[in-house]
UniProtKB/TrEMBL annotation:
HAMAP family: Rex (MF_01131). It comes from Kribbella capetownensis. It is found in: Cytoplasm. This is Redox-sensing transcriptional repressor Rex. Residues 92-193 form the CoA-binding domain. Modulates transcription in response to changes in cellular NADH/NAD(+) redox state. It comes from the Bacteria. NAD(+) binds at residues 103-108.
Amino acid sequence: MTRASSRRPGPPTRTERGIPEATVARLPVYLRALTALSDSGIATASSEDLATAAGVNSAKLRKDLSYLGSYGTRGVGYDVEYLRYQIAREIGVTQDWAVVIVGIGNLGHALANYSGFGTRGFRIVALLDADPNLIGERIGDMEVRDFAELEDIVKADRVSIGVITTPAGPAQGVCDRLVAAGVTSILNFAPVVLSVPTGVDIRKVDLSIELQILAYHEQRKSGEAALPQVPELPAMNGLTDLPSVGGGVGA
Ligand SMILES: NC(=O)c1ccc[n+]([C@@H]2O[C@H](COP(=O)([O-])OP(=O)(O)OC[C@H]3O[C@@H](n4cnc5c(N)ncnc54)[C@H](O)[C@@H]3O)[C@@H](O)[C@H]2O)c1
């Protein structure tokens, strides 16, 4: 790695289209790693440096970045600022995205208090809730507003992204209202699968699924001996009656 100089990155090249979803999912990770390098005054980084900072292997990183038409310079590496710009442009965070959060309970409060969205290109324009006891409450420099104002806010602030942090029950209704108001991307924290029309993107965040994936790896790490014993299965008419596996995933 080398320290930052006053050299500015050159003009952007055209980004290739048709980037695989898995690569797209890693772009924000690279962006975060590049931002950390840039904040430390690093001007260029090798693919190995960058891969270590992002927690992936360098071959995968090089392949991912090649979809952006970015190959680095042999013996020098990647220009941190320029690559950061390329990735930010590809993700779409060089522009400002207006976001509303609906459901300002525990999770909504936590998200509302998080200061990191602004620096990543997301502007929280409204915190909305249906509970009259919450409406008017101040969180930082914002005030919780009535969910009834949704349509006016979406129109006035050209909101394209809605975050749902309500309980599961009302989440579909909230989602439908967001979509009808003109929101075209939804991040859902409620433990329910939501239906959206074509053209609306939806992503679900479920911490319990992430924890279950970690539990799976923990189980593998501790070896076969740590695996729970499977009870002997009762025979039924010559067939085996498999015990059912319980329940869905809640948050
Ligand atoms: N995805 C995850 O990893 C994760 C983690 C924790 C919680 N959750 C989920 O996030 C959601 C919020 O959790 P919480 O602990 O903040 O709940 P909470 O009960 O503290 O807050 C929910 C808020 O939604 C509001 N609300 C309810 N119906 C509404 C409606 N129709 N319109 C507008 N606002 C409405 C309520 O007034 C309340 O303020 C839950 O669905 C929970 O299961 C998800």
